[in-house]
Amino acid sequence: MNPIQRVAIVGGTHGNEFTGAYLVKKFEQHPNLIQRSSFETLTVFGNPQAFAAATRYIDEDLNRCFLMQDLQNADLSSYEAQRAKAIAQLLGPKGNAQVDVLVDLHSTTANMGLSLLLSARNSASLQLASHLSTINPLVKVCWTHPHPESMLLRSLCEVGIVIEVGPVAQGVLDAQWFQKTEELVHAILDYLEACNRGMTPLMQSPLTLYEFIGTIDYPRNSLGEIQAMVHPLLQGKDYEPLHPGDPVFLTLEGETIPYQGDNTVYPAFINEAAYYEKGIAMCLTQKQLITLENL
Amino acid sequence: MNPIQRVAIVGGTHGNEFTGAYLVKKFEQHPNLIQRSSFETLTVFGNPQAFAAATRYIDEDLNRCFLMQDLQNADLSSYEAQRAKAIAQLLGPKGNAQVDVLVDLHSTTANMGLSLLLSARNSASLQLASHLSTINPLVKVCWTHPHPESMLLRSLCEVGIVIEVGPVAQGVLDAQWFQKTEELVHAILDYLEACNRGMTPLMQSPLTLYEFIGTIDYPRNSLGEIQAMVHPLLQGKDYEPLHPGDPVFLTLEGETIPYQGDNTVYPAFINEAAYYEKGIAMCLTQKQLITLENL
């Protein structure tokens, strides 16, 4: 990894995800906590108006406003489009960011523990993720195929990482997740400091990586109304294997719907509140073991 | 209890409390499930627009719109004021309701299990609550001092009961809570049917009643910003004793704030998402044992 000069910690990208929002507020008030001697750490509060209203967003999802062409489109004037441009000006531009590492703090109603979502499968991101999952076995590492254009805030930066913690209800500040997220942020900063000093910790390979391969929506009727719930046997079972034929939904009338895929998958974001409107009941991942020597 | 002629089941009073909303949708589609031979059962979907937007309310909290004077005030025209008037026309008027029993289905982010909130401490409500807590020990029974004027939907009816289940995140349909709530609704209907047939079950007294005596807000600064979280040792401990000096909050900086009251209390609605804006971190209750013979 090249020397790290600037790191950004973003919270409150979604206004009702209080863990990251209050953590950034704490860091703003006590900047010494996130300073390290070899690099500068910035904080960004993503969506102040949505936070004030305790809602995910005002006009549209801020974390879907970072398409390059949208950032360059002066006609887009929603509150979140404006916030995205302001944040891109502060941290970007895409492909040539002013920060070397970007950590975006989120929470989820799904039972995802301490999840890291990586934008890119580059060596720097994977080394960091491997380190964090080695020192804390509760850390899970997810990765999405890189789109040529990503809408996500974390795509501003080559080493863009989301910390996704849960289960936490929207609009709730949970002390335990607040503390665990803070510990993880400190572990990231300490790791980057060690890298800068040439003391990169030796990694225990292999790294377990959950690669996003698709999504499943709730069964709906022709009006789009939900007809079935996540099955009680699947609820809360993020990152556990879902085999063909396993229960995946339960209709309101009590009928079990089995998983119809051909292969075992590992669901994540199971029953995430914010994804109902996106037509996503869960994301599916493939579990991979990656040998870091091969990076 | 006088013969029951009509029972109302209300769901979706808060648009992001999906358990009751989807249960009423199910009952609307399968009305036979809630019919009993000796009385009529109606369903009411409280706040359709808020449900469509997956938010608690559009303009204001519908469950605070049932003051008699507000129901009679033609100048109040918010969406929820209009819904309250429509619901009062269907089920009310207050003091002379068209239904004998009203069950309003809610959910909470607090760990309140299967809670019954009673409007009035009348014999009919207590007998019903006692029966339900006898057949299901997970049922807790709460009671608020009767205000001469209540703002709550359940105050439309003398035997007005809220079922409050949780923890469930806002905007999430959780199959287990859906099923448990449905079972409880059936237990209520079956009990009322038995009463009408003169076969009222014998009650095991005493009944444990949690009487609301006040609320505590989060510690805030002069701008109203939250400075402390519910303490991890108290999170999820609804209905458990909180003694003077016990940890109640944890500041963002990690300092424990003890409970300053003089007496042991039993908190409920601990860290309920919807109560942040109401200035309520938790409700306090006193635990009472009531001998039903004395009713």
**Domain unit count of chain A:** 2
Pair with the biggest interface: A-B, 34 and 34 residues
Low-confidence runs of chain A: none
Characterize the biggest β-sheet of chain A.
Answer: 9 strands, mixed
Summarize the helix and strand pattern of chain A as letters. EHEHHHEEHEEHEEEEEE
SS class of chain A? alpha/beta
Please name the CATH topology of the largest domain in chain A.
Aminopeptidase
Structural topology:
2 copies of one chain form a homodimer.
Chain A: E1 6-11, H1 18-29, E2 40-45, H2 48-52, H3 68-71, H4 79-91, E3 101-107, E4 113-118, H5 123-135, E5 139-143, E6 159-166, H6 175-196, E7 207-216, E8 228-230, E9 247-251, E10 256-258, E11 266-268, E12 282-290
Parallel strand pairs in A: 1-2, 1-3, 3-6, 4-5, 5-7
Antiparallel strand pairs in A: 4-6, 7-12, 8-9, 9-10, 11-12
What do these coordinates show?
2 copies of one chain form a homodimer. Chain A has 295 residues and is an alpha/beta fold. The first copy, chain A, has 2 domains: 6-204, Aminopeptidase (3-Layer(aba) Sandwich); 208-294, N-terminal domain of TfIIb (Single Sheet), CATH 2.20.25.160. Chain A has 6 helices and 12 strands. The first copy, chain A, has helices spanning 18-29, 48-52, 68-71, 79-91, 123-135, 175-196; strands at 6-11, 40-45, 101-107, 113-118, 139-143, 159-166, 207-216, 228-230, 247-251, 256-258, 266-268, 282-290. A 9-stranded mixed β-sheet of chain A has the order 2-1-3-6-4-5-7-12-11. In chain A, strands 8-9-10 form a 3-stranded antiparallel β-sheet, with no helix packed on it. In chain A, helix 1 (18-29) packs across helix 6. The radius of gyration of chain A is 19 Å and the shape is globular. The first copy, chain A, starts with 5 loop residues before the first strand and ends in a 5-residue tail after the last strand. In chain A, 49% of the residues are buried. The mean pLDDT of chain A is 95. The interface between A and B is medium-sized, with 34 and 34 residues.
